[in-house]
Amino acid sequence: MWLGLASIWGSVALAGPVSDRIQADHRMIWAGIDYRSVEMFVPETFADPQELIHWDPGGGLFDFTGHFAKPKDAWMALCKDWNTMIQHDVLKRMEKDLKSPVIVDVPATCATAKRDPWFYPDYEAERHPVTMDATHVGKMVKDYRFKSTTGVAFVVIAERFSRTESRACVWPTLLDVASREVMSTRQICEAPAGIGFRNYWYNPVVSVVKSVVRELRDLAL
Domain coordinates of the chain in residue numbers? Predict the structure, then answer.
């Protein structure tokens, strides 16, 4: 259940349900996938420059692989691709479902805020308990610098991707742009799946985004 669901959807201070706010503002703001705090426990750590990674094998001329001189290079390329892909895959669908324009205003996604280690070996997952909670999410979004001054922003904060646990955990979050106050957030974990490293960890995130948009659409009906 959404944290604070009863107070959020019927809040007078927020002018009714979140879906009403989005339509009243005539738009939703897509704030991207924030990977700055994510912990990735994976077999491929990109620590070996000769490590051959299947980046996005799709058949025929679309097959390609990648070598990266250092883990940070792989991380920045992945993070950029994940954010570009999700804009291509879901923004038009969001506009159709919510009957509202979606404005792209991405304040923080990859950047240099994430520090080494960029990737942990998969067996390290057992030594690292989950620490993110709603309070941590609230602190993260306080630092966002939007171009927009008002509206409802939708950001997905990545928490933990673990191959051994077979799950990708994220916090889809709605916040008020003017105040940076969290309107709703929760942890959702999905099983990763897909061909190639990039798609394997991308598909569970896009699945979460689509499910949240469906919830908002259904509340507006």
Answer: 25-220
